[in-house]
Amino acid sequence: MISPADRARPRATCRACGGTVVQFLDLGRQPLSDRFLTEPEIPQEYFFQLAVGLCETCTMVQLMQEVPRERMFHEDYPYYSSGSAVMQKHFADTARQLLETEAGGPDPFVVEIGCNDGVMLRTVHEAGVRHLGFEPSGKVAEAARAKGLRVRGDFFEESTAREVRASDGPADVIFAANTICHIPYLDSILRGVDALLGPDGVFVFEDPYLGDILAKTSFDQIYDEHFFLFSARSVQALAASFGFELVDVDRLAVHGGEVRYTLARAGARRPAGRVAALIAEEDAGGVATLARLDQFAAQVGRIRDDLRALLERLAAEGKRVVAYGATAKSATVANFCGIGPDLVSRVYDTTPAKQGRLTPGTHIPVHAADEFPTDPPDYALLFAWNHADEIMAKEQAFRQAGGAWILYVPHVHVRD
């Protein structure tokens, strides 16, 4: 029986299957997560309502409101995958694995959706394998081309995929990392994969994993660019509706917990045992149930209250607090928790395109990470918590001088 409270929940139409999406969390008014501003641009800043829901039919977790893709992925998109040594190694290893297992034919063809600055395709190129990257964000696409890579400056969708099939033939591997979850129009993506992929080819993509987000209460993985939060069960349902089958899953530690999904044409391969194992684990944990998602929403509220209280106490004590990592996901935390320059004086980041600008929504000044050791604060709020080991190893002098890190995943705590 549906309770009156459940009947009152906002609803939307599922972008994966057309079912009904029921809201379980509202993170409030949010800006574009990767839109770092100059002072004159503040009056024109774009905002939307960031809420997330569960499809009652296919269990796909997704945003309730879509942000137009052109607002997010454009000429000045500031994220470069090569900025992290950990991610460079991850993608080089991924490329080598795909080349060894899936691209061993006489003339293999590897396509990447959202190739960014070419951090994965570079290894494919160096192996002498035919390749093509799709990257609609102008400057990062140019960075990939500067490495000698073949890049098409378009969005991947059914029409562009058919054009590539006509000119280049079928793909042995279509790969995407931290990209498919960004795309609301999954129908066109899967039809494009169907058009471009060879009969024995695979579609491999890795994205933040709903199970890890719930386990770690990493609610900052929810922002405008992450339209979907995938689980093995929802990806299995998605694949089946387009003539594909989920044949493998691989748990990854990167970006706070991801899963690499491998799809093949239905019946082409026998699914690995770990597909059923992961779905059974999800079912046992209630990953795709409103009860578990409501519990997650309550935990998110506690993190907001605890983090805000800690920062206000430190401000009252006269402690100097900065943040580290002007990440896209930090926009969710800062805006949901009301963290502005009054509580965090600046954010340090390694990305030149963000430096000298203001964070989305909360307008905290962004400074070069090289400046962090020269003026150490009392506390540093680690927005880039998924790179904690790499950052803390780099900034050891901060802790040795008595500084302490503030983290909020899986709960608010101080690491000194």
What are the SSEs and their pairings?
Elements: H1 4-7, E1 11-13, E2 20-31, E3 47-55, E4 61-63, H2 69-72, H3 85-101, E5 109-113, H4 121-126, E6 130-134, H5 138-145, E7 151-152, H6 158-168, E8 171-177, H7 186-196, E9 197-208, H8 210-216, E10 228-229, H9 232-240, E11 244-252, E12 258-265, H10 273-285, H11 290-316, E13 321-324, H12 330-337, E14 347-349, E15 366-368, E16 379-382, H13 388-394, H14 396-400, E17 404-407, E18 413-415
Parallel strand pairs: 5-6, 5-8, 6-7, 8-9, 13-14, 13-16, 14-15, 16-17
Antiparallel strand pairs: 1-2, 2-3, 3-4, 4-10, 9-12, 11-12, 17-18
Please, could you describe this protein's structure?
This protein has 416 residues and is α/β, with parallel strands linked by helices. The chain has two domains: 81-288, Rossmann fold (3-Layer(aba) Sandwich), CATH 3.40.50.150; 292-415, Rossmann fold, CATH 3.40.50. The chain is built from 14 helices and 18 strands. It has helices spanning 4-7, 69-72, 85-101, 121-126, 138-145, 158-168, 186-196, 210-216, 232-240, 273-285, 290-316, 330-337, 388-394, 396-400; strands at 11-13, 20-31, 47-55, 61-63, 109-113, 130-134, 151-152, 171-177, 197-208, 228-229, 244-252, 258-265, 321-324, 347-349, 366-368, 379-382, 404-407, 413-415. The strands form three sheets. A seven-stranded mixed beta sheet has the order 7-6-5-8-9-12-11. It has a six-stranded mixed beta sheet with strand order 15-14-13-16-17-18. Strands 1-2-3-4-10 form a five-stranded antiparallel beta sheet. Strand 6, helix 5 (138-145) and strand 7 (151-152) form a beta-alpha-beta unit. Helix 6 packs parallel to helix 7 (186-196). The model has no long low-confidence stretch (mean pLDDT 93).
